[in-house]
Design brief:
Helix content is about 15%, strand content about 30%. It is of the alpha+beta class and about 140 residues long. It is rod-shaped and about 100 Å long. The N and C termini lie far apart (about 75 Å).
């Protein structure tokens, strides 16, 4: 029995010492290295893109490393459709959403900005085709 009381007393003493130490210790935040403090930055760039009524004449936009795209509609272009391909010089087909809807902006206003449709986000290369007239669009991209 005396041996058991000795173990209990020793355990209680250990708990008391641990509690005293824990209350005396000042908690400090862990310092971060400069590498751990790097902020993610997204860069913007703008470029021009030739839009024609003929798919073969349109410029291809390399979309492989882009996060988002917007397009400023040139004068006299009233509607646009989006085509995609896995290579820059391959055969382009209509970009479609999972429900089969073609990626397009049915009515555009010259000088206004529009987002690229969500279905184009995974495309490697994109061509924008006008259903009315030709022109040069301004594309702003986020990388």
């Amino acid at each position: 029995m005396n041996r058991m009381h000795g173990w209990i007393a020793a355990g209680m003493l250990a708990l008391a010492l641990l509690a005293a130490y824990a209350s005396a210790v000042t908690r400090q935040p862990i310092a971060q290295s400069a590498a751990a403090q790097v902020a993610i930055q997204r860069m913007s760039a703008s470029t021009s893109l030739a839009i024609h009524t003929d798919l073969a004449s349109c410029d291809a936009l390399d979309n492989r490393n882009l996060a988002a795209c917007r397009i400023k509609i040139p004068a006299s272009v009233t509607a646009i459709a989006f085509y995609e391909c896995d290579t820059a010089d391959g055969t382009y087909t209509a970009s479609r959403a999972s429900d089969g809807t073609a990626a397009a902006i049915a009515t555009t206003v010259a000088g206004d900005w529009y987002d690229f449709p969500a279905s184009t986000f995974g495309a490697a290369y994109i061509k924008v085709v006008s259903t009315g007239s030709t022109g040069t669009a301004i594309i702003v991209v986020k990388t």
